[in-house]
Design a protein that fits this description.
Number of strands: 3
Shape: globular
Strand order of the largest sheet: 1-3-2
Radius of gyration: 15 Å
Largest sheet: 3 strands, mixed
Strand content: 15-25%
Structural class: alpha+beta
Helix content: 25-40%
Oligomer: single chain
Distance between the termini: 28 Å
Number of helices: 2
Length: 120
């Protein structure tokens, strides 16, 4: 998620569940094409696979947003990779300290992001 005025923008909400009977990564979406164009789904799948590092999961996209100019596949790939890592932290498969490196994701009980101190 970009909080500045320019640059890549990606935003989506995802629920992570244990995998189905087939195992592997399953990506499902309930988000309309107007809110999250299908062209970004391959980048989300790729980022999730990287972030989960081989851990099987079923991922349901429940909401999404895009910007006509600033949304790029690479932004969704980065966001999905961090979402996958956050899911592993939430499941206890990665140490909680790893959360400090996840700058662009939020989840229940996630640590608050540290803001850089301003020079006075």
């Amino acid at each position: 998620m970009n909080r500045g005025c320019c640059g890549p923008f990606a935003r989506f909400d995802a629920d992570f569940e244990p995998p189905g009977s087939d195992g592997g990564l399953e990506l499902l979406s309930t988000v309309s094409e107007q809110r999250l164009p299908a062209e970004f789904l391959p980048a989300i799948r790729e980022g999730l696979a990287q972030g989960l590092g081989g851990v099987s999961a079923s991922v349901l996209l429940t909401d999404g947003y895009f910007h006509e100019t600033d949304s790029w596949a690479s932004a969704y790939r980065i966001g999905a990779e961090q979402a996958g890592r956050a899911a592993l932290i939430g499941a206890g498969l990665l140490p909680p300290e790893e959360a400090e490196a996840l700058r662009w994701v939020r989840w229940p009980d996630s640590p608050k992001p540290r803001r850089p101190k301003r020079a006075r």
